[in-house]
Structure to design on (354 residues):
């Protein structure tokens, strides 16, 4: 497969700037996620790579070849969309073999290649079925098999799991993620679901309002978010303002020793819900405000003595609203960043995405 380079892309529609100065590289065999809220420019970026849109400025390259003005049909890309767009008048096998027919392979080669992909995706038993008779998850696999059959230089996936139930999504994430990694597929994976991006992608580009806020591994964007937008979009974040003085982080409501590498001065701190342990005794007094049972854990909001609100993750239902508790901060789980990179607004937490 190819290395994909998106170089300083800008796309304007009339007066709307959909994408501005987006530069990304997807290495050969890498899956890069485009993650962000509705309208942030994910699909526009993907459509520019596919050739359905011509950028107002900037370039798209596959390896060293400039593809910016190459028509979509000559780019050798595989496409998987949220609507599977399978041909209902053909069997599953013929759907998968369709692109190969267009490329002039003879019938036995087409059949062999289609059956190989159906086997790889675990759906060889469906080869003679009509796509209309398949479940959403089965159709999704057929769509992926069809996209991969042509051995694309780059695979583009746009919200491919939308519409599938939560359990099937989890299974497909694992299976499809492993398959794409085994096949060494270079892929751009558009989603607004952070759990999906974290599970499927080697790296994630977090987009907001037409530009890229941060590119990094799932661990980077979760544990070391570049700014408050990323901290809040990728999971739940508590964002505090503080000051580091002589190896101690002063947060107003508590002081926490931090490692010697943290420079003195104002700082902004991102603390994930799991960065606190909650007990009857501990460092910082708090009152539980509400608890939401989430199956594997309980999400709680608590108020500190100065009214700061924090979002916590509790292992079980041991606390109830109005309980007086105490929080202990796990200093190693706090992410400190320079104040000018993070701009805490209302302190608290927000949750978006999956
Ligand atoms: P979603 O998750 O909702 O699909 P997205 O992140 O993929 O959103 P885009 O579809 O890339 O976002 O849209 C980015 C911006 O560009 C939006 O403000 C959108 O309204 C605008 N836009 C997209 N396509 C067009 C178009 N053909 N004409 C005018 N504006 C457009």
């Amino acid at each position: 497969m190819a290395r994909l380079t998106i170089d300083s892309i800008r796309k304007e529609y009339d007066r709307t700037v959909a994408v501005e100065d987006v530069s990304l590289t997807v290495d050969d065999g890498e899956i890069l996620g485009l993650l962000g809220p509705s309208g942030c420019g994910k699909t526009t970026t993907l459509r520019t790579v596919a050739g359905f849109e011509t950028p107002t400025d900037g370039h798209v390259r596959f390896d060293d070849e400039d593809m910016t003005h190459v028509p979509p049909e000559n780019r050798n890309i595989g496409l998987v969309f949220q609507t599977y767009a399978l041909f209902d008048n053909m069997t599953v096998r013929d759907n998968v073999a369709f692109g190969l027919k267009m490329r002039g392979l003879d019938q036995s080669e087409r059949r062999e290649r289609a059956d190989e992909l159906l086997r790889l995706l675990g759906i060889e038993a469906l080869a003679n079925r009509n796509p209309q008779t398949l479940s959403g998850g089965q159709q999704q696999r057929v769509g992926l098999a069809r996209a991969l059959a042509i051995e694309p230089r780059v695979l583009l996936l746009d919200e491919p799991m939308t519409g599938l139930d939560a359990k099937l999504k989890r299974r497909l994430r694992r299976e499809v993620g492993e398959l794409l990694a085994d096949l060494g597929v270079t892929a751009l994976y558009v989603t607004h679901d952070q759990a999906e991006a974290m599970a499927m992608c080697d790296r994630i580009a977090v987009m907001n309002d037409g530009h890229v806020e941060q590119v990094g591994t799932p661990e980077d964007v979760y544990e070391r978010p570049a700014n408050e937008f990323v901290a809040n979009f990728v999971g739940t974040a508590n964002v505090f303002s503080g000051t580091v003085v002589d190896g101690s982080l002063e947060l107003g409501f508590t002081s926490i020793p931090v490692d010697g590498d943290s420079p003195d001065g104002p700082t902004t701190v991102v603390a994930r819900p799991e960065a606190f342990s909650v007990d009857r005794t501990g460092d910082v007094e708090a009152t539980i405000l509400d608890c939401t049972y989430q199956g594997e854990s309980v999400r709680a909001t608590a108020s500190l003595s100065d009214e700061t609100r924090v979002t916590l993750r509790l292992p079980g239902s041991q606390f109830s609203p109005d309980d007086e508790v105490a929080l202990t901060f796990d200093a190693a789980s706090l992410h400190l960043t320079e104040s000018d990179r993070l701009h805490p607004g209302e302190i608290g937490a927000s949750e978006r995405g999956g």
Remarks:
- Residues 204 and 242 are 28 Å apart (CA to CA).
- The radius of gyration is 24 Å.
- The helical segments are 42-50, 92-102, 107-120, 136-149, 166-183, 194-200, 218-223, 228-233.
- The first strand starts at residue 4 and ends at 13.
